[in-house]
Amino acid sequence: MLGLARSSYYYQPVPVSEEDLLLMRLLDEQYTQTPFYGTRKMTAWLNLQGYGVERKRVRRLLRTMGLETIYPHPRLSQPGAMEQRFPYLLRNVAITNVNHVWSTDITYIRLARGFVYLVAVLDWWSRYVLSWELSITLDTSFCLEALERALKQGTPSIFNSDQGVQFTSADFVQRLQADHIQISWDGRGRALDNIFVERLWRSLKYEDIYLKDYQSVRDVRNGIQAYFEFYNHQRLHQSLDYQTPAQVYRQR
């Protein structure tokens, strides 16, 4: 099954209270608009909408959604147990060709009565989605599966990610090092260091996820597969001189 981690083949959405599901939907939509909001602003925003919630609850829900790591709050994102640390390599760097920089990220995908997590690997120059996977948990395995499938199409000079435990794990780091790929980690609490993947999530959610309200994992898997086919092969990008990501990626 393309795009679905093995552990998720027979997944049924984990029961979540109706109130928490509603709050998570609202948080997801607001985060998509304002990924720079911390838990304090998210809590204030929910209260302005008439939902009397405490910051502790918002933090718990964001952690469940896998979004907590992007907020500038001490110790929110715990790197993997690696002695080695990697700097952010892309500040003021001109991206000049395909496979110069790849990046990855994880996002929360809502279902009618549950949720899953999506990881994707993106080529920065072409905006081409090289691979993606869905999972019911935030473990490292589905991220490694996406990485392996991406590496079958090429090898980047630099691979950029945030400092989540999936991407700082020994298995993930060593897989990149095995192909002599330079590793770049976003600064703590700097969601926009990975701006092109953030834009991909925004496009996916506004153009597909929020419009279709998927009921099951099978439905959302098929929907995401169709969307990424459209995104790669049909969706024109102004920044690419109105070409598609696939057209630009194949010009290498």
From TrEMBL:
Q: Which organism is it from?
A: Dictyobacter arantiisoli
GO aspect biological process, one term:
DNA integration
Which GO MF terms does the UniProt record name? Answer: nucleic acid binding
SUPFAM superfamilies attached to this UniProt entry: Ribonuclease H-like
Q: What does this protein do?
A: Involved in the transposition of the insertion sequence.
- The name this protein goes by in its record: Integrase
Q: Which Pfam families match?
A: HTH_21 (PF13276), rve (PF00665), rve_2 (PF13333)
* Domain Integrase catalytic: from-to ranges: 83-252
Gene3D superfamilies, per this entry? Answer: Ribonuclease H-like superfamily/Ribonuclease H
